[in-house]
Write a structure and sequence with these properties.
This protein is an alpha+beta fold and about 450 residues long. The protein is built from 12 helices and 22 strands. Strand 13 and strand 14 form a beta hairpin. The N terminus is likely disordered.
Length: about 450
């Protein structure tokens, strides 16, 4: 993949982050804001090579679509933080269904403490008769089915939020039907309460909220338990997920098997759904209210590894490990869809367009100007200049540090460099090309 840039020193780090499928950085390279402090380290848009006018385009879209708060974190540091209509960093707002992911996380904490197991029947904690199903059907429903939206309970009732037994009837065996059904999810809070012998709020506050410096709590509204906190609290939770359940070096989620299951396909009925998380980049997906499987990924404007917590009216938390980004949007929305996929895809289209870098196919230098081989290389990397014009090269490591500059060579001895991902910059009077190089001895 080759790109044109105007300033290699300001763009190389961006290229590393936005264009390369590499392993995420470790907690040593992530920033975690101190608890109970308002100060948050920042990263400038110049460092990332983002265009100010494109940020204004993003802000205009957000404001025109009733956004209240918006944050982008890069490596844990604040890159963008914007509030609209009198909303501030301290203003409280509801997460709606984005809060499902917090409940999922708390189930994992309860399991790692030995309070429950996903394979246990829901009746073990909710009691017999928590549904109106036959006993044999009810006893087939497990905690895992509640986490994956595969309980088999009927979501087509007039009130799909109702958690009373007479609202919960079986229309399919557990595990054989995927349906976005709020009631079985909501009852996970009661499962956690009975498993831990404490209130759900108290468990959330002691095990997750306080350790990572969030604020807020869950409130019961009708049948629903709704998490209310501020935008930065949602960002903190996203950063925790980015670091695979660890706050800095402090493990909040120690059950790595549960964490990996939570953020990957949890069943084959809807491959774009984990444990109450939405997953991008899968071959198909289903949406709330329909028993239809759609081909392709959820969000075509987003990286394939993005995972999302999404709630009504556009409560959005996106985590992108390959780019080390956490993106938060809170507010209202022009539409009242249960899960506003279109809004999230539109936001990601603006975000992915923030870099000033443009594809070289529209400019003088393109990937056909040079043959660069072999790649991967462990010995000599050859550079064949088809244009027969003078050029210079620079080689950068994956941290954006220049490790070689030369103005005349047609090959590079890469045997002296450690294995890893590098970027070769080729420059002449037509511009600059960047190519990802893999050094592998």
């Amino acid at each position: 993949m080759i790109f044109q840039v105007k300033s290699i020193t300001t763009k190389i780090f961006f290229i590393y982050i936005f264009c390369c499928n590499i392993h995420p950085v470790s907690a040593q390279n992530l920033y975690f804001p101190p608890n109970n402090q308002t100060q948050w380290d920042t990263m400038s848009i110049e460092t990332l090579g983002w265009c100010p006018e494109r940020i204004n385009d993003l802000y205009n879209y957000l404001e025109n679509n009733q956004t209240k708060g918006f944050i982008i974190l890069k490596n844990g540091k604040m890159v963008l933080e914007k509030y609209f209509g009198g909303f501030t960093k301290d203003s409280l707002w509801y997460w709606a269904s984005a809060g499902k992911t917090v409940t999922s996380f708390m189930v994992g904490v309860a399991q790692q403490e030995g309070k429950l197991n996903l394979s246990q029947t829901s009746s073990s904690f909710l009691g017999n008769g928590w549904t109106s199903c036959a006993t044999t059907q009810e006893n087939q429903i497990t905690i895992r089915h509640q986490l994956t939206m595969t309980s088999g309970l009927d979501d087509g009732l007039a009130d799909p939020y109702c958690t009373l037994p007479n609202c919960l009837s079986c229309i399919a065996p557990a595990g054989e039907r995927w349906a976005y059904h709020n009631a079985p999810y909501t009852l996970l809070d009661k499962v956690i309460e009975n498993a831990t012998s404490t209130s759900f709020n108290a468990y959330f506050i002691s095990k997750l909220r306080n350790p990572i410096g969030m604020n807020g709590q869950f409130f019961q509204i009708d049948y629903n338990n709704i998490l209310v906190s501020n935008v930065r609290s949602m960002a903190r939770f996203g950063l925790l997920i980015l670091n695979k359940g660890r706050w800095g070096f402090t493990p909040i989620m120690q059950d790595t098997a549960f964490f990996n299951q939570m953020v990957n396909t949890s069943q084959q009925l809807n491959k774009s759904y984990g444990y109450l998380w939405w997953l991008n980049g899968k071959e198909s997906f289903r949406v709330p209210g329909l028993q239809i499987q759609f081909p392709g990924p959820l969000f075509r404007s987003a990286p394939n590894d993005m995972i999302s917590a999404i709630g009504k009216n556009g409560q959005i938390l996106n985590v992108i490990p390959s780019q080390q980004l956490v993106i938060i949007r809170m507010g209202n929305a022009p539409t009242s869809s249960e899960v506003p996929f279109t809004m999230n895809d539109s936001i990601m289209k603006y975000v992915q367009n923030l870099p000033c870098v443009t594809q070289t196919k529209d400019h003088g230098l393109d990937e056909n100007s040079f043959d660069i081989y072999p790649n991967p290389s462990g010995d000599i990397l050859f550079i064949n200049n088809k244009m027969k014009e003078n050029f210079s090269i620079q080689l950068y490591n994956d941290l954006g540090r220049r490790v070689l500059t030369d103005y005349s060579v047609s090959n590079i001895d890469v045997s002296i460099y450690p294995n890893g991902i590098y970027f070769l910059a080729i420059r002449n009077n037509l511009g600059t090309l960047l190519k990802k190089i893999v050094i592998q001895h």
